[in-house]
Amino acid sequence: MQQGTLMRKVKSKSWKKQRYFKLQEDCMTIWYQSKRTGKTESAFSISDVETVREGHQSEVLQSVAEEFPPERCFTIVFYGRRGNLDLVAGSAEEAQCWVQGLRQLIEPRSFPLTFALVFRTWIRDWFQKADKNKDGRTNFKEVQRLLKMMNVDMNEDHALRLFQDADKSESGTLEGEEFVLFYKALTQREEVLSLFQEFSEDGKKLTLLELVDFLREEQLENEGTEELAMELIDKYEPSETARARHVLSADGFLMYLCSLEGSIFNPQHRALWQDMSQPLCHYFISSSHNTYLIEDQLRGHSSIEGYIRALKRGCRCLEVDCWDGPNGEPVVYHGHTFTSKIPFREVVSTLGKTSWGNSSSPLPSMGMSPASSHHQRYGQSTAMQGISVLPRSAVRTRICSQGASLSPTPQELKHKILLKGKKIGRLEDTLDGPGDEAPDVSDDDNGAEAEEERRRAKVRGTQHGSALQKDKETLAQALSDCVIYCKNVPFRGFQEARSHSRPSEISSLSEAKARKLIRDEGNEFVRHNAWQLTRIYPSGMRTDSSNYSPQEMWNVGCQIVALNFQTAGTEMDLCDGLFSQNGCCGYVLKPPFMRDKETLFNPSDPSSREGLGPITLTIQVISGQQLPKVANSKEGAIIDPLVRVEIYGVPADQAHQETKYIENNGFNPRWDETLQFQLHVPELALIRFVVEDYDKTSRNDFVGQFTLAFANIKPGYRHIHLLSKDGTSIPPSSLFVHIRITE
């Protein structure tokens, strides 16, 4: 890699240019230059790379699949909204060299390496920004400009003292290690040092027993504490001598607090930790709406990139709106709109390649919506073509062994795809013989056709047979036969569902319909969701792809709460926060009182929750570290940060409190403020930490956030590693807090 490699940079089927790519000596920067001119075209940092995909796992590379084999192709995916970099290597060996090399750099095996990598990258980046004349050293004026860039408003005399202390060569400039010394002095964590000295007898180290005391008293680690203390010393103490003596220095203590073990998120809950042998209806399932869209709902771009991004984010319920296309080739797009179209074959191929990258958990619903335009019907030949390209992991026959319940579990469905869609006849009728069934209503409002579907769904008596015949004409039998366990049925009330529906069926409700049911029949809604799946979708008025709050839907146990994954905001923060646990498998087990068909729980009445009374969550917001500047802010502007803690859950638990703002300090602000909340139903609560730049004349600007389920909170002194608006990490920005939970 370090010698430079000639590869094709691909932007489209017709744009394929050869470029030399080279990893710089710092092992943190990659540049590429034109083969023809030799001029450097661009460069990027390894820290900007989120992941590397092998093969034809992008829309661009799929368009050239016939020209270049998958083993020579790979895609570099960046954090944020920066576009992908699609590359074709000269050979499979060269491609593997780059893929494996990049993965080694962006996915180090241990957190200490990650921490050291981030620290080294951060210092190097700031040094390069400060060194305006590129002479390899920084003078005091350059350092003063750098402090402004770093969100630091520091007294000039104090800054000069730090500069002179670090200038060991007394040259009036800082070079290499001198700049590292200056940076360390600048980032001295007084609040952490004070905590360290509180438990250290000599103020210089923590003995094994002193570390055990800290872990038990403050971090509430009560099991295997001595073994944990030894592990932390071995893992985070940078000094070999200290490790040999089983002691932890102040530097090692800080590394521990900044690590995954020192995070507010319980590290044990990052892995798969919940029971996966319950029926599907007992889980919240990460779900997307119109997954193929990456922009708005009317004229937006349809792309397989939407599926790839959703799957990488842990989504397990995808939508595939399939329509007749030219030459009998099915296409996927938002029907009756001006959104672009993508071949159905490409979508299915992508799902087959990427569905199990992050999770072996089933895709409980690859939402197939076969439909017809006014001029073409979804014919048998088109359906058969669709069937032929479905991945082998698609469930085509009954596999559940639970008898009459007909409700499989995630464990039984590992590496499987369930199709959700219309079906001719009940599942039981399909297994035992033909039967009659009223036509389904459509999932989304699609104009006159949707109205016609709703009208037909109300037909009874003698009209039933003709409606069924019409349904058979517009829905291919072959595709219908592939709908197992997730058959769409119209929702006609909870009493009707109890009398005539099956656990293998699913109803789709608009957000407005769901809210009315929550308001009028909250307990009935919870009971219904204890035995049957319910899907919620956004209002047809949300043409800008905005989102509704998923929390109120989760409060009544709705499993498939479909969101527009392409739209960043609080709603997607809540979704990411809930599903960041349990191995990011896209499944979260509902609380016991929401899995009981006879439950008395109603989210509007917290006292209906059986069990303990409310608990108290106390959060001391201590400090912040290296907070990012607000996007598009003026040069030299420094943020005035405040922290707001928001609680999402049942109505009685909804709350928010915030700290005061700290003027002109985004680098190391200190708040030392305590916020307190009462939670009546903590099992459903999500906690969102938000940092904003205070503005007294206009709306505050977003700086960063982190959201997690209450069940995943680790008490004690913890760091919260902030995320950007679109959910990507922004190292090393963090908050330092102290958490207490009492009954």
UniProtKB/TrEMBL annotation:
The keyword Translocase appears for this protein: no
One BP term from GO: intracellular signal transduction
Cofactor(s) named in the record: Ca(2+)
Residues of the PH domain: 1-107
Sample GO molecular function, one term: calcium ion binding
Keywords of this entry: Calcium, Cytoplasm, Endoplasmic reticulum, Hydrolase, Lipid degradation, Lipid metabolism, Membrane, Metal-binding, Nucleus, Repeat, Transducer
Span of domain C2: 595-724
Ranges of residues in domain PI-PLC Y-box: 479-595
Top-level taxon of origin: Eukaryota
Compositionally biased intervals (Low complexity): 359-373
Topology within the bilayer: Peripheral membrane protein
Annotated InterPro entries: C2_dom, C2_domain_sf, EF-hand-dom_pair, EF_Hand_1_Ca_BS, EF_hand_dom, PH-like_dom_sf, PH_domain, PI-PLC_fam
Reactions that this protein is recorded to catalyse: a 1,2-diacyl-sn-glycero-3-phospho-(1D-myo-inositol) + H2O = 1D-myo-inositol 1-phosphate + a 1,2-diacyl-sn-glycerol + H(+); a 1,2-diacyl-sn-glycero-3-phospho-(1D-myo-inositol-4,5-bisphosphate) + H2O = 1D-myo-inositol 1,4,5-trisphosphate + a 1,2-diacyl-sn-glycerol + H(+)
Region feature Disordered, mapped onto this chain: 355-380, 427-468
SUPFAM superfamilies on file: C2 domain (Calcium/lipid-binding domain, CaLB), EF-hand, PH domain-like, PLC-like phosphodiesterases
Biased composition (Acidic residues): 430-451
Pfam families: C2 (PF00168), EF-hand_5 (PF13202), EF-hand_like (PF09279), PH (PF00169), PI-PLC-X (PF00388), PI-PLC-Y (PF00387)
Subcellular location: Cytoplasm; Endoplasmic reticulum; Membrane; Nucleus
UniProt domain EF-hand: residue ranges: 118-153, 154-189
EC number: 3.1.4.11
GO cellular component: endoplasmic reticulum; nucleus; plasma membrane
Name under which the protein is recorded: Phosphoinositide phospholipase C
Gene source species: Chloropsis hardwickii
Name of the gene: Plcd4
